[in-house]
Amino acid sequence: MNFLSEKVNTTTGGFDARAQIANPDGALRPGQFVRVMLQGATRQAAIAVPQRAVIDSPMGKMVFGVSPDNKLVPRPVQLDGWSRGEWIVTKGLQAGERVLVDGFIKAHDPGMTVKPVAIDAKTAASTAPAAPAATSASASASAKAAH
After folding, report:
1. How many other CB atoms sit within 10 Å of the CB of residue 65?
2. What domains, with CATH codes, occur in the chain?
3. What's residue 67's pLDDT?
């Protein structure tokens, strides 16, 4: 990286950056565009949910939260991109809250009772290895910290 802009787009949180990359074999041509994935940055205390847990509604993006008494509660959320197959939630959820992940066809009514089941630890570990383990899932999965 040889340049980072001081100006941050307040709408997207994005900023301009430039990197110089060695190209001894000429694989990159002048004027060619490339997509770059930078690794190493982390989002402290970010909340992540599986992409399939987020649905589009007439009111925007939302999830079905699972209350302590196992009832479905619609929750509008704001998202800021995705990482490792999970949406990064910036508003609308707190760490440890449970959300509906599978079974949307059966989830026909807010307020209905669901039966949470343990999420497959192997699947949870592969989507966010540095995040705390999720607890529950066929009907719900916990929102968890993401990097």
Report:
1. 21
2. 43-146 (2.40.420.20)
3. 92
Identify which of 114, 115, 117, 98 has the alpha carbon closest to the alpha carbon of residue 49. Answer: 98
DSSP characters for 64-125?
EEE-TTSBEEEEE-EEEEEETTEEEEEES--TT-EE--S-TTT--STT-B-------HHHHH
**Per-residue pLDDT reduced to its tens digit, 12-65:** 777 888 888 889 998 888 888 887 777 766 777 788 999 999 999 898 999 999
Burial of 4 (0-12, 13-18, 19+ CB in 10 A): exposed
CA proximity to 139, closest of 107, 113, 116 = 116
First to last CA, the chain: 21
Distance CA 61, CA 78 (A): 7
107 vs 68, more confident:
68
Question: Tokens in use for 4?
Answer: 């980072």
Does the pLDDT value for residue 75 go beyond 80? yes
